[in-house]
Amino acid sequence: MFPLVKKFLKNSALFCVICLSILHVTNTYAQDGKALFSQNCASCHAVHKKLTGPALADVENRGPWSDKAKLHAWIKNSAAFLKTGDKYVNDLYSEYNKTAMNLFPDLSDAEIDAILAYIKTVPDPAQVAANNPGAASKEDEEFTSFYWGIIAIVLATLVLILLQVNSNLKRLADEKQGIPTTGSVPFYRNKHYLALLAVVLFIWGGYNLAISAIGLGRQKDYMPQQPIFYSHKVHAGVNQINCQYCHTGVYQGKQALIPSVNICMNCHMAINEYKGAPLLTADGTPVDGTAEIQKLYEYAGFTPGKAWDESKATPIAWTRIHSLPDHVYFNHAQHVKVGKQDCQTCHGEIQKMDEVKQFSPLSMSWCINCHRNTAVKFKDNGFYSIYEKYHQELKSGKIDSTTGITVEKIGGTECQKCHY
Amino acid sequence: MKEKKHWQSFGEKIQSETYQEDLKQEFAEPNYLEASSKRRDFLKFLGFSTAAAIAAASCETPIRKAIPYAIKPEEINPGQASNYATTFVDAGDAVSIVAKVRDGRPIKIEGNELSHVYQGGTSARVQASVLDLYDNARLRNPLKSNNSAELNTVITELKESLKSGNIALVTSTINGPANLAVIETFKSKFPNTKHIIYDADSFSAHLVANEHCYGKKVLPSLHFEKADVVIGFQCDFLGTWLNPIEFSRQYSTKRKINEKNPTLSTHIQFESIPTITGSVADIKIPIAASQSKSILAALHDMVTKNTCTLQDPIIKEAITKTADLLKKNLGKSLLVCGINDADCQKIVNQINNAINANGNTMNWGTTYNIRKGLDQDFNQFVLNLNQGIYQHVIFYDTNPVYTWCETNKLQEGLKKTSSTISLNPKLDETTSLCKYIIPTHHFLESWGDAESKTDFFSFQQPTINPLFKTNQWQDTLLALAGENTSYSDFLKNYWIKKLGSEENWFKTLQEGVLNNVNNTNFASTTLINTTITENFKNETESNSLELVFYKKVGIFTGKGAENPWLQELPDPVSRATWDNYFVVSPKFAKNNLQIDLSISEQADAYEVKPAKKVMTVKVGEQSLTLPVLIIPGTNINTIGVALGYGRNNSVGIAAQGVGQNAYPLQKFTNEAVCCHNKNVSFTVKSETYSVALTQTHHRYDTAQGVRTEVIKELTLEEFIKEPNKIVEEREHELKPYGGIENFEKQGTLYGVYDKPGVKWGMNIDMNLCNGCSACVIACTAENNVPVVGKQEVMRFHEMHWIRIDRYYSGELENPKVTFQPMLCQHCDNAPCENVCPVSATNHSSEGLNQMAYNRCIGTRYCANNCPFKVRRFNWSDYTGADSFPNNQVTKVSPTTFDMNSDLVRMVLNPDVTVRSRGVIEKCSFCVQRLQEGKLKAKEENRTLEDKDVKVACQQACPTQAITFGNANNKNSNISLTRSQNTLRQYTVLEPLHVLPNVTYLAKVRNEGDFS
Questions:
Q1: Model pLDDT, residue B99
Q2: Of B543, B511, B476, B446, nearest to B90 (Cα)?
Q3: Are B851 and B921 in contact (CB under 8 A)?
Q4: Whole-number Å distance between alpha carbons of B573 and B805
Q5: What is the b/e burial string over B156-185, where b = at least 16 CB atoms within 10 angstroms of the residue's CB?
Q6: How many Å apart are CA B831 and CA B822, to the nearest integer?
Q7: Within an 8 Å CB–CB cutoff, is residue A221 touching chain B?
Q8: Is the CB of B852 less than 8 angstroms away from the CB of A329?
Q9: Phi and psi at residue B222, to the nearest 5°
Q10: Which of A258, A326, B164, B896 is the most buried (most CB within 10 A)?
């Protein structure tokens, strides 16, 4: 039996390599800090696109804004600045239907400068699109997996053939030496092969059972059809509407909140047709964007050209994609406002998705792994000042400042941080 | 062996055999190791579960919908709580509260800290009232002759019929000015209306006596915080009398010990039935209720003339010493008396006048508006009703058919009217006799105002849209009066006129209260009538039996019986749930029931089995058959019985078949309903009745059987003389393990872990805890603790995460009582953690003993290993959380089943997992609140402060006995409390080296000359 075991080990090792290479898919996204812009400006402004207010790219070269002091004054208190009678701003005011800009008395000069600096760094999506060679890395990986799979199958067949040849040769040698053989048994009735097959089947079955049991209720890559073909790509990508504009709860509480019909109608009262690039579903069927807006109007009980009676609105029953079990507590504000995580960290490149699919497995190991590797904003947030010991250790270099204090280090992997 | 100082049960006092055996058995499940399933069954189960797992694994995940609002209201954010200031209004009581609303449903009630009267305190009844909102027994639409009817039809019909004939409007005390204006509007439309105020919890005699003595038919506001000597006379002022939340807070300020200069008020309690007030008193003297008058008169004589005619030597001595104390503390003393008898109250007025209470501890400038009913008014109403004077009767928030002693007369009288109208929310005893029923809203659905004390206003605003087709009583009255305005407009206009602007009104409504800050002067008053009726002299000091009626903190006058949380709340004194019963003294039991508690077998037979002897007590024509509980501290000639039980079946599943109605045994005499009845005979029945008594559940003790490591108690005198007594006692206990200083490190083989950042800690001051049990209900509401029902409680299966342990010490007939709230101690070296085979319970870096329900496989090793017995096991599917449907029907009580209906489940806190069958649960230190508080601090970019985090029990406590916070922060309340009270501080079972994060402060009693 010994050689059999050896062979089996070889085979299973190969098997494992194949499995692992198939499963091995990793993606990480950079995090960036455009928080101030997102918090304060993005509900009305985009950098390269007119929204409720003008596009902000190149703002410092327009009108009176080369004078920083004036720009600061305008941002902090636009109403007061309007009264100074500045022609440029008054024209602007009329151009945007006399919609006053919000007041931001709490923003400091330094903060405003930070926002302006950020605006300069945002590339024009039109140019980016032209220059983008396409996200090839993932495709590469898929290709690699496929390649490895073929090699594995070829190798496995080779091993089988060699084994067969080996046994044939052995039989021939035995015959030659006159050792009596038990008679030729076809390989499919050979007990060794059958035993091997049974073991392989058992392991394969067990592995799959375990995997599917673990995956019970998980739905990574889940991309259901929604009642309205709502494209995040069109809204968040092309038109650069800030996530918070619609998902109003994301900075405040547990739930990010799916927008209600009245939030959609804020813009779609005016925007009643789709003029952008052609939309396609995942299987390539073209989608008529204008017809989809019409669906929204049906839910809203709105007829273009007439005044909208809000009481006629009916809610839209979206199909839920991201769904955590009931015994898990997850809070968006904790991750987005305090942890300064990007939406993309968990939801993937949502701004490129026409139809949303679940990007992350939302499994416990996925949560825990992130908590193990992610550093908290230890120095920036006043809350963490109570961890005096860690602050000292960071200072003395006992704790590596590049890894920083991870979420795990302050108890972020303990049961009752998420389960209670 | 050192003599045991504190005992929980009679068996423990005499160390009976059963007690010692029982102590080893955690769950009192006799044969639970003898499994009925065989090995083959086990294999079958195994096979089935594997197959089921495979089948489940191949299932498609169901499609879930996410449906946002069509038009989202700006102030409602799903997942985030909104808080609305409003007012708990029930039969005159008006407590300022804040209702926590999640996704449109009120789920928790907290006290409103802006109220100067209640200062954020609550009671068990207030905490439980949120559950009444989601009661399946609430009427869902107006009824006419038991058929559902449209509101408009009923109103139109009634408007017509009310035009002729006399109308009686019978309500409990109503105190909001706008509410009173509504009644005035109604009366001006129907001038032949008489408004009769009837309080089931009557203060009739107090009002009559005050009018007699002072010429004012009011109840002065009381100031226990100014009283160095408090005399409670048949008066449960911390539990059920008048305004207990306010009194608890005031009283606690004088019971808080400053270790550097220890002082305490002296509290002497005279009572026939043990109450929580008597339990926390320094001195408690059992008296016969019928002798109250002569004892009060004797006290009066002692205070004024220094003579005493009393015969009984014990009482005479007590009276003498009490009078001495009072005389030494003129202007700093207060006598309160709960007897509904004008003669008694007149003597009380004389005494209070003699000890200068008026203007010092009693403020006549600010008076209570929460009890205004006069019993003789109601009696007159019943007489008039029988004479056919009233054609129409309207009832609101009162249930006299159930609570009035002469209910037969009332029912007879009601038959003589042409229309009876009830505005009560349920088909209670009175309402079910009414022809027209227009159920009112629950108070959380209502608008309104209240004025519990003069010029201290509190406001109601709806926190949820009405769940049913109910109509607020004010709206009904306004509609009947033909007014077109809704009550919400009526109220708004009324207050805008008073406050000057709409802006002020909104601000006031938002804050929920309007405190009288200008009138801080104390008003005194002069006695105009000093005559005392001397008819008590005829009272023979006979040894005849008497029946005394009392109210429980939860059930109160009977409304609590409808509420499952309150039914399952163990009465803090008797520790019984789900029943009323006769309360007798050990001596009575020995003489009449053949139960001698000093004999091991008899004590065990009484105590260990839930079956109790049954007695029939007869008063005149009326009789009552109930089980008997022996409660030490009861007067030997007294049989006590709680009111509020024996409700009819339509008021709720929880009330069905629970207890007997004792109201008919009361009698109307001397112009008031008497709280005791003298001509009593009793017979002991042969049958028994099982009572769900929790006193003997979840017991624990030290190996030596000495309670000193659990309960530490001393007198003020001892404490002043030997301030280090407790510390020395601890030093002695810990000596083998390195003494106090080195105990943490030397007492164990385990390592010491640091707790960087936050370390949660709790401190409970046993001097402030009065056992009121508000914390128990608050915890139940906050943490979705299930109700299990009587049968399950009898099997030790009650689920409360916090319990109030009651300990006795001293003599059997009149022991001292100590309450100790017991909850998970969150031991840093927790014995439950190391025995869990799946690590479902483990320790957090913040000092929490965590429980992961999804990991728990139900071995119950942890519960077994918990020294404090605070872990609870879900023996059945109490919450309906299991995936298998229909496994509840026969397994859980009807009440538990009802609690799982869609309506009642609306009360669940969505931040706390509902536990399924087969898992252990326990106090989590309200971890959901801790996480929320930390998040708030992080969002605001600052360190954690005390105000961010309040656990439910702490927030509910009217005496602030519980302190909680981050013990790593030197300036937090918990750190300060601990560092300022080092002399009394200890942890329970300290030598075990479990290192609890809950510390206790030892109880100190001021026994003075009495000891």
A1: 94
A2: B446
A3: yes
A4: 10
A5: eebeeebeeebbbbbbbbbbbbbbeebbeb
A6: 17
A7: no
A8: no
A9: -105, 150
A10: B896
> E-assigned strands of B823-881?
841-843, 849-851, 872-873
CB B948 within 8 A of CB B934: yes
Residue type, position B927, single letter: V
With H, G, I as helix, E, B as strand and everything else as coil, classify residue B877: coil
Buried b / exposed e along B817-850 (16+ C-beta atoms within 10 A):
bbbbbbbbbbbbbbbbbebbeeebbbbbbbbbbb
List, in order of start, the domains of chain A with CATH numbers: 2-28+135-214 (no CATH), 35-131 (1.10.760.10), 235-362 (no CATH), 373-420 (no CATH)
In this predicted model, what pLDDT tens digit does every residue of A254-312 receive, in sequence order? 889 899 998 898 888 888 888 888 888 888 888 898 999 999 999 998 888 888 888 88
pLDDT of residue B52: 78
Task: Give CA–CA dist B345/B339, Å, rounded.
Answer: 7
Between CA B364 and CA B524 the distance in angstroms is: 6
The backbone torsions φ and ψ at residue B194, rounded to the nearest 5 degrees and listed phi first, read: -115, 130
Domains and CATH numbers, chain B: 204-368 (3.40.228.10), 545-693 (2.40.40.20), 714-1010 (3.30.70.20)
Contact assignment for B67 to A212 by CB distance below 8 Å: no
Both tokens assigned to B552: 């429980």
**Start-to-end Cα distance in chain B:** 25
**Does pLDDT of B599 surpass 50?**
yes
pTM (2 d.p.): 0.84
Q: Which of B59, B60, B63, B69 to mutate: most A Cβ within 10 Å?
A: B69
B756 contacts A410? CB cut-off 8 A: yes
Output the CA angle B944-B946-B949, nearest 5 degrees: 80
B79 and A253 in contact by Cβ < 8 A? yes
> Rounded to an integer, what distance in angstroms lies between the CA atom of residue A67 and that of residue B35?
86
Reported as half-sphere exposure (CB side, CA atoms, 13 A), residue B803 has a value of 25
Q: Which tokens hold the place of B1008?
A: 């003075």
Question: Over chain B, what is the mean pLDDT?
Answer: 88
ipTM of this predicted structure = 0.84
Task: Residue window 50-109, chain A: list those with CB within 8 Å of chain B.
Answer: none
Residue A127 burial (CB count, 10 A) = 10
Q: Which two tokens stand for residue B781?
A: 């509401």
- pLDDT tens digits along A54-85: 888 888 888 788 888 888 888 888 877 887 77
pLDDT score for B707: 67
Which chain A positions have a beta carbon within 8 Å of B862's beta carbon? none
Cα B16-B21-B23 angle, rounded to 5 deg: 95
3-state secondary structure at position B361: coil
**Least trusted range by pLDDT, from A11-15, A177-181, B72-76, B101-105:** A11-15
Instruction: Write the pLDDT tens digit of every residue in B310-359.
Output: 888 888 888 899 999 899 999 899 999 999 988 889 889 889 988 988 88
Task: Judge: B68–A419 Cβ closer than 8 Å, yes or no.
Answer: no
DSSP letter at B115 equals -
A419·B56 Cβ contact <8 A: no
Calculate the alpha carbon distances from A56 to A79, B354, B823 in Å.
19, 82, 58
Residue A37 is classified by DSSP as: I
Question: B405 Cβ partners below 8 Å, 6+ apart?
Answer: B663, B664, B665, B666, B667, B668, B673
**Residues on chain B touching A223 (C-beta within 8 angstroms):** none
The span from the CA of B592 to the CA of B167, in Å, is 51
Phi and psi of B928, rounded to 5°?
-65, -35
3-state secondary structure of B9: coil
Exposure of A192 by Cβ count < 10 A (0-12 exposed, 13-18 middle, 19+ buried)? middle
Give residue B240's identity as a one-letter amino acid code: T
- Amino acid at site B871: R
What confidence tier does B274 reach under pLDDT thresholds 50, 70, 90?
very high
